[in-house]
Amino acid sequence: MSSRPDITASLILVDLLKTLKTMMDYKTLSKQTGIPVSTLARYVTNKTLPRGRKIPETVDRLLKLVNIESFVQQRLVSNGDEVDVSSVVAESQLLKLIVPYMYREFMGYKIDSVLAVDKAGLVVATAFGLATMKKTFYCVGNETGFPSRWKEVKYRLKEARMWSKLYLPSMVLRDNVLLTVGVLDDVLLLKEIRNRFVESRGEITGVFSIAASRDFMKNIKPYQLGKVVNLISF
Q1: Using H for helix, E for strand and C for coil, what is the string for 143-164?
Q2: Cα angle 23-94-21, degrees, rounded to a multiple of 5
Q3: Are 143 and 123 contacting, i.e. CB atoms less than 8 angstroms apart?
Q4: Each residue of 12-26: pLDDT tens digit?
Q5: Rounded to the nearest 5°, which phi and psi values hold at 165?
Q6: Per-position DSSP letters for 56-77, written without gaps between them
Q7: Alpha carbon of 203 to those of 115, 195, 217, 225: distances in Å?
Q8: For position 222, what pLDDT does the model report?
Q9: Signal peptide position in this chain (predicted)?
């Protein structure tokens, strides 16, 4: 995304202020942010839209007021080897904190589209796409009746002698894409997805996940998948 502040940055800041307002009163929020109470009230009630080149800095400062990682950790369900993030993506208020977090992390990166790899990733991709006005796409696990519109990805399942398939929307393969995933634990799948983009002269700008296994992060080479960001490691 361009680093130039625009209407998107202003709207993300306002939405973040509205979310923080549900956690504290105007006086406390003003003290924490340095923004006058009267100005905060105009932002939160949609009477005024913040402007200026310092908006990204303000978003960063506001994100430091909340421990997003802790909120996510409290809602994860784990059995040791696997984690379930369904309770994370089910909470709209938490998603409203995750979106500006993503915006901050990928500021300055060129992103044409957002591509969800799994179901939890689709929730995140939709929220981020709506907030930043980016096209949002998703992968499917079964062959469709429109083969020209989907590109097959065949990959070996983790720790198994079996192969599986995933289908990518063909129209996204030439874009600069941000991948969103609920849980990152299979490096083989993402490597194959990357190969399809390389073949079509597209590019994976980065990957965002709610949770990622330490093994996955250890096996990813620097910039192999662009910038890789995860909220929780397991």
Answers
A1: CCCCHHHEEEEEEECCCCCCEE
A2: 25
A3: no
A4: 999 999 999 999 999
A5: -130, 150
A6: HHHHHHHHTTS-HHHHHHHH-E
A7: 12, 10, 20, 9
A8: 77
A9: none
Q: Which CATH class is domain 67-233?
A: alpha beta
Amino acid at 99: V
Map 87-113 to HEC letters. HHHCCHHHHHHHHHHHHHHCCCCCCCE
Q: pLDDT tens digits, residue range 38-78?
A: 999 999 999 999 988 889 999 999 999 999 999 999 999 99
Beta strand pairing call for 135-138 and 113-116? parallel
Q: What are the pLDDT digits (tens) for 112-138? A: 999 999 999 999 999 999 999 999 999
Total residues found in the chain within this entry: 234
For the segment 84-100, the average pLDDT, to the nearest whole number, is 96
